[in-house]
Fold this protein.
Amino acid sequence: MTAQASLLERAEKAIPGAALGVFTLPEKQRVVIESGQGSTVVDADGKSYVDYLLSSGPLLLGHAHPEIVAAVQKQAALGSSFYALNRPAIELAETIVDAVPCAEALRYQSTGSEATFAALRLARAATGRKLVLKFEGGFHGSHDVAQMTSARMMGRNSDETVPESAGLAGVLADEVLIVPFNDLEAVRDAVAGRGAEIAAIMVEPLQRVLRPVPGFLEGLRALATKNGIVLIFDEVVTGFRLAWGGAQELYGVTPDLACYAKAIGGGYPLSAIAGRRDLLGLADNTRPASETYSYLGGTLTGNPISAAAGLACLNVLKRPGTYERLRALGARLREGLEEAGRNAGVPVQALGEGPVLSPLIAENRSLRTARDLATVDKKRMVRWAHEMIDRGFLLTPGGKMYVSLVHSDQDIERTIAASREAFAAVR
Ligand SMILES: Cc1ncc(COP(=O)(O)O)c(C=O)c1O
């Protein structure tokens, strides 16, 4: 038995599903990662992969970036957690507030799910309203509201508010309105009917790999402003990735609140809600007691090691040329994958934005909603991913690929070359 097979056997006994989260691979491809360096990870049997998982996104600088390692080592020697203000948390907050158009201030949490959960709480507290409007197939994490008609059940009727998970609180179906992404008319109708009850519109500005159609985000902004609704951008994926100021900078629409995680922790657990000072101030427990006070907290919130890692990461991202490079790598990979598909006779379109992409196999060339996404040939996409994993490229079968600043041109060209064989294999 190999070292990896033995670890997998132990994992099966101790961890149901032998998985962390929802990422799983077929039996013969399952891996236990032993180490990561730059764009490469190595499994417990010594096999190397070019990594397009990047830990589901946080590693915009790849694995074990020397500046992040140095910052973490320095902070670890100074203390790992204080449950009190600390220098890295303050400096990182200043950096984010400076970078993000909507950010007058921020509050920390530890995960993306906690950030979206907290943003919704602030919106309800500020408006005194209960309803949340979100988009079919939009993913905002693991909490109960986020699990309504989220990513997995793409393709159901958008007027159904369906739980993605068992065990959610019962009242939620009545408190979440679901509308199709990129359908401003549907949002208008929902707001016309129940606008005075809606606390928040929560949206991924780039929903998974679907770009917003021109005018969609602007329309949400206008409807939110007119109806006293808090507009929340979930920038957990897009923050500091699509541009220094995130999707709101790239698309030119400023929300009231925005949620950050992944990149801002440089690979360590950290998240934040940034935005209007009056909204974030509702969590200020030094204010006199009031009905709008919103509890936001957590033992490890604003953790100094995570903040030091995040600060080191943002300091690198801030350098000239970062976003040009990320966009160029994403564009070359997108173009190469589409061409490889075409040459193999497979209808591939690599949707996404900048360094976030997914090579979808679909005849429909105008994919705009989650329901459109449900029509792609997912089975073949998954088979293609398995072919790629066999060839030493790690990615989520049927899901997104993330490119980092340290992927080399050679990594990308090798990936494209392998994808030719992989598409030919699933023709
Ligand atoms: C857009 C979006 N929001 C929220 C989350 C939840 O973040 P976390 O997994 O850190 O809780 C994710 C996770 O992938 C995400 O992609």
Summary: The chain is about 35% helix and 15% strand. The longest strand covers residues 198-203. The mean pLDDT is 95.
